[in-house]
Amino acid sequence: MNNPLTANVRSRKDQIYVIDVQGDLTAQSEDTLMAAYNTASQSGAKAIIVNFEGLDYMNSSGIGLLVTLLIRVQRQKQRLLAFGLTDHYQQIFALTRLNEAIGIFESEDAAVTAVAAPA
């Protein structure tokens, strides 16, 4: 543990942005994660997709940050989706019911396709 989070923002198409996270998602990650979200939002994002393929560790504070991110996304009338979660973290999302608010997908392309489809 103690692998500081990095978050890179990439643009896909039609105002869809991907945040690639690498490292540990903990209380110390707040500035990094929110800066990445702000970068995507300033560009007029309609959907934010979080890529968890590079996630090494996430604790309860990291889950709390995702809830904070979700609230910000909803306030902006955006959608929050995710892919690349291990089975372990998919179980945690199910236990915390985050999977009911954040769309979980097998791949980046599946998440992008879901955004493009009518809700």
Largest sheet, spatial ordering of strands: 1-2-3-4-5
What integer value in Å does the Rg equal? Answer: 13 Å
Annotated CATH architecture: 2-Layer Sandwich
Biggest sheet, open or closed, and with what strands and sense? Answer: 5 strands, mixed
N/C terminus separation: 38 Å
Percent of residues in beta strands: 25-35%
Count of domains: 1
Q: What top-tier CATH class fits best?
A: Alpha Beta
Proportion of helical residues: 25-40%
Based on Cα principal axes, name the global outline: globular
Quick structural summary:
The mean pLDDT is 95. Helix 2 links the parallel strand 3 (47-58) and strand 4. With 119 residues, this protein is an alpha/beta fold.
Give your account of this protein's structure.
The protein is an alpha/beta fold. It has a single domain (6-116), classed as 2-Layer Sandwich (Transcription Regulator spoIIAA). 39% of the residues lie in helices and 30% in strands. It is built from four helices and five strands, in the order E-E-H-E-H-E-H-E-H. The protein has helices at residues 30-42, 60-75, 87-95, 108-116; strands spanning 6-11, 16-25, 47-58, 79-83, 103-105. Strands 1-2-3-4-5 form a five-stranded mixed β-sheet, with helices on both faces. The model has no long low-confidence stretch (mean pLDDT 95).
